[in-house]
Amino acid sequence: MDTLNRFGHLNVPPNGPFRFIALDVETAGKTISSICQIGLCFVSDAGFIQTYSVLIDPEGPFEAFNTELHGISAETVIGAGTFPTVYASLFEVLNTHNLVQHSTFDEKAMTAACARYGLPMITSHWTNSVTIARQAWPSLKGAGGHGLANLKKHLGLEFHHHDAGEDARASASVILKAEEVLGAPLSYLTTNRQLTFPFINRSER
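^ DNA polymerase-3 subunit epsilon, sequence as received from the core. Prediction below:
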C-alpha cells in the first residue's frame, strides 16, 4: 500500500492509461521556475479520480509570502528530490496524456523549470479549466469570477486551496462538473495515448 501524505494523496503515481491528468504546481519564490510541489489528479474514463503529490527542493530561497500561502518551506523540502529527478520520473506519464490546468500558470512554470535545467518540455495538449468553467457558468463573471476559490464556494467543492495535489483535484473536478452542465464530455479529453519520445537529461551529458 502506498504511503499517504497529509491530505491522503498517493506518493506513487497510479497505473494508467487515464482519460486526462490535471496538474498543479506551487512555487517557492518570485521566480516562476522555482517549483517546490507538483500535484497530479488522474481521471479514468469512468470519472474515478486518484491524486498524487510530491515535494521538490527548488534549490533556491523561499519567499515568506509563498510559504504563508502554501505552507511549504526550506525545512519542509529537506530530503526532497530536485526538479530534474522528479520530472524524469513523471515525464512519460505526463507526455502521454492530455493535461488540465487551472489558468496557464502551471504550464508556464513547468516550461520555465525545464528551461532552467535544460530539460525537454512535455509536448502534451493542455486544457485550461478556467476557460471550460467560463463556458459552463458564465454568470460567475463579475460575481467572484472563475478562480478555484470562488468555484469552491459555487460548486461546493471540498479541497485545501494552495496545495498542489488538492488544487489539481479541484481542477479535475471542475472539468467533470462542467461536462455535466454542458451535457457532453469534452471530445478532446480521451484516453488515446499520445506519441512519446525518450526523456533526455541534457544537463547530464
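The radius of gyration is 17 Å.
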